[in-house]
Design goal:
mainly alpha; two-stranded antiparallel sheet; 2 domains; about 200 residues
């Protein structure tokens, strides 16, 4: 029989034995009433060390509220971000998926046909959810879409559906005192919102 086959069998047996060692140790420790904690490991510069993925934790200065009204406004902002941020994330994923699929289509006609289907699907899926948002949540959503996609709502509609449709939706939003051209300013007027978004994403709120 080929010598390499013997080597393969030997290596396989060693791996099986090594794989069984943790199980045997776990069984022995369990039999002795000891708790067993298993964790992933990684090899770093030839050494096997524990591998632990720690979540990002943000540290901010404690907020100081002048009165109960400010405290209620902050609590409302937290609720609104938790409700609206998932929708902004969905919009970002939908844009990426739509763009990637459009790149696979052979010509402009098929792309426009697909975009019409996407627009119809978005209206059917999101109109009921949009109706449940308050006016403040709707304006927040416009800004968070800009944050998540690096493009304003107006720019996104214009890129996918053309300037005419973008103008129509912008005019429609203006009827309610909103604007699809609103940009997110994380270091300026939206700094408190950015703080809340980061803490919500990290699970701190």
């Amino acid at each position: 029989m080929d010598r390499r086959f013997y080597i393969f069998i030997l290596v396989a047996c060693l791996l099986c034995c090594m794989g069984g060692l943790p199980c045997l140790a776990q069984q022995n420790q369990a039999a002795q009433g000891k708790k067993v904690h298993l964790m992933p490991v990684t090899v770093y510069e030839g050494d096997t060390i524990p591998f632990v993925r720690l979540p990002t934790v943000y540290i901010f200065k404690p907020l100081k509220f002048k009165n109960k009204r400010q405290m209620r406004q902050y609590a409302k902002l937290v609720r609104d971000v938790k409700k609206v941020l998932p929708i902004a994330n969905e919009v970002n994923r939908a844009i990426i998926e739509t763009y990637e699929y459009l790149m696979t289509l052979p010509d402009e006609e098929s792309r426009q046909r697909h975009l019409k289907l996407v627009e119809k699907s978005i209206k059917e899926q999101y109109t009921p959810r949009m109706k449940k948002l308050t006016f403040a949540q709707g304006k927040l959503l416009i800004k968070l879409v800009d944050r998540q996609t690096n493009s304003t709502g107006y720019e996104l509609v214009k890129a996918f559906l053309g300037p005419f449709r973008a103008g129509f939706y912008q005019a429609f939003a203006a009827l309610f005192g909103a604007s699809l051209k609103k940009e997110y300013d994380p270091t300026g007027k939206d700094a408190l919102t950015e703080r809340v978004v980061l803490m919500v994403q990290s699970g701190q709120l």
